[in-house]
């Protein structure tokens, strides 16, 4: 490479073995050991703080963030790259904003930058001409039609945006959940939503200790069953233990009740269910997604949250006040954000807006 040769003349060292075998971003994030490596990833923005990456109005050419997908929005899945002065004119985002979404390879030292997994003292940059073929679009642009809107206008705009989706069959849901709900500590397992248990992906089924497909918006609330559409929308379908799924049944969500067997932290009574605290916000955001996505205009019932329990077969689930409190107390975490990204990039190609913008909950349901 011409750039590498010039750098060698200037006294910068390049390790041929690592440069010849690039690693991906997730590997680089896990290998912060001050070793030299070449990392290939997609440019997803400029880091300006430990948990902040901007995708426009770049302040300078000093840094960029790489990810394994051009649509990645979670900073925990990004590698922060320090750009030495020699490369800023060619790879700094202020000077080259068109690099956003392009694939590049950088050789440098795997070390923290902005107190975040990073790559420093770079000796070579290459690429910049290819885009992620699996990237359906920039999530920032994804919500462009909702910009500046509030209340009912925001809800209507989001409905239009997220209704543009690929629909799965109920059988396809099995394999999708094995990906979207994969245990980050064990790729052979999924995490069960309510109980939090890590369980083998291969134990899906109907047996007493198997896991099955839980409809967080109970399918009897609106009587949509497992029909392609709300019945197969994986934004609200999650793996769960068969007996815990049965214990939840079609109950509304509320605080209180007695402990649920095999579900530490869960409670239930005659008319409501509460999951463990760590996923109460997840549940709320799934319910509110369903209310925006399914408004009665595509042959299915108009789903709406309300402040009641005992909703039965009505196309409603409560309690809205409790769900809003859960969402505020349990903001989106890395697992939930990754799940949203996987659904967007690989399966349905739509997003849950309340994971990306939790503040929109209060705007739509003040």
Automatic annotation (TrEMBL):
Keyword Transmembrane helix attributed: no
One Pfam family named in its UniProt record: DUF6359
Keyword tags: Hydrolase, Nuclease, Signal
Residue intervals of the Endonuclease YhcR N-terminal domain: 23-125
Signal peptide positions (record): 1-19
Cited PANTHER family: ENDONUCLEASE-1
Name of the molecule in the record: Ribonuclease
Classification lineage: Bacteria, Bacillati, Actinomycetota, Actinomycetes, Propionibacteriales
């Amino acid at each position: 490479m011409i750039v590498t040769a010039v750098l060698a003349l200037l006294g910068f060292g390049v390790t041929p073995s690592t440069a010849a075998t690039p690693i991906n971003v997730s590997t680089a994030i896990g290998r912060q050991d001050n070793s030299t490596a070449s990392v290939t990833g997609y440019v997803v923005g400029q880091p300006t703080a430990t948990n902040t990456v901007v995708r426009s109005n770049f302040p300078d050419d000093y840094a960029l963030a790489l990810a394994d997908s051009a649509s990645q929005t979670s900073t925990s899945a990004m590698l922060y790259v320090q750009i030495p002065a020699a490369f800023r004119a060619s790879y700094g985002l202020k000077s080259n904003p068109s690099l956003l979404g392009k694939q590049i390879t950088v050789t440098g030292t795997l070390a923290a930058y902005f107190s975040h997994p990073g790559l420093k003292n770079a000796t070579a940059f290459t690429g910049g001409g290819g885009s992620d073929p699996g990237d359906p679009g920039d999530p920032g642009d994804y919500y462009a039609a909702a910009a500046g809107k509030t209340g009912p206008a925001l809800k209507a705009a989001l409905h239009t945006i997220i209704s543009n989706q690929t629909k799965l069959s109920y059988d396809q849901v099995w394999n999708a959940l094995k990906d979207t709900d994969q245990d980050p500590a064990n790729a052979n397992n999924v995490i069960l939503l309510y109980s939090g248990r890590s369980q083998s992906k291969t134990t899906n089924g109907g047996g007493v200790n198997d896991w099955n497909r839980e409809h967080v918006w109970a399918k009897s609330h609106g009587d949509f069953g497992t029909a392609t559409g709300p019945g197969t929308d994986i934004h609200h379908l999650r793996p769960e233990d068969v007996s815990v799924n049965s214990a939840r049944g079609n109950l509304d969500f509320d605080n209180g009740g007695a402990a649920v067997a095999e579900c530490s932290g869960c409670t239930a009574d005659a008319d409501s269910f509460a999951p463990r605290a760590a996923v109460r916000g997840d549940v709320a955001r799934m319910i509110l997604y369903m209310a925006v996505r399914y408004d009665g205009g595509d042959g299915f019932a108009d789903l709406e949250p309300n402040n009641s329990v005992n909703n039965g077969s009505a196309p409603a689930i409560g309690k809205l006040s409790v769900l809003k409190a859960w969402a505020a107390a349990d903001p989106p975490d890395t697992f939930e954000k990754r799940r949203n990204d996987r659904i967007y990039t690989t399966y349905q190609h739509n997003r849950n807006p309340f994971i990306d913008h939790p503040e929109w909950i209060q705007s739509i349901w003040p």
